[in-house]
């Protein structure tokens, strides 16, 4: 689970934070537009998995969602 947002900035603290897909959607999918972006990300990740990619790192930046 990712840590809470910093009160002074509204951002996550610096660092690498692991989260499940469900946690990611719960944290960042709070508007219809963001849910659409996350659905596209999920489709891309599923396509990579289908193509044989089994390990990897997905980086989500503040400008991503």
Provide structural commentary.
The protein starts with 20 loop residues before the first helix and ends in a 15-residue tail after the last helix. It has 65 residues and is mainly alpha-helical. The protein contains two helices and no strands.
Number of strands: 0
Structural class call reads: mainly alpha
CA gyration radius, whole angstroms:
13 Å
Distance between the termini: 18 Å
User: Biggest sheet: strands, sense, closure?
Assistant: none
Order of helix and strand elements from N to C terminus: HH
Number of helices: 2
What portion of the residues fall into strands of 2 or more residues? under 5%
* Spans of at least 5 consecutive residues with low confidence: none
Q: Average pLDDT value? A: 85
Which bin fits the share of residues in helices?
A: 40-55%
- Shape descriptor reads globular
Count of all domains: 1
């Amino acid at each position: 689970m990712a840590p809470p947002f910093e009160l002074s900035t509204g951002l996550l603290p610096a660092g690498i934070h692991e989260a499940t897909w469900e946690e990611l959607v719960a944290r960042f999918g709070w508007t219809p537009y963001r849910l659409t972006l996350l659905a596209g990300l999920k489709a891309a990740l599923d396509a990579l998995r289908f193509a044989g990619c089994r390990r990897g790192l997905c980086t989500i930046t503040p400008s991503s969602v």
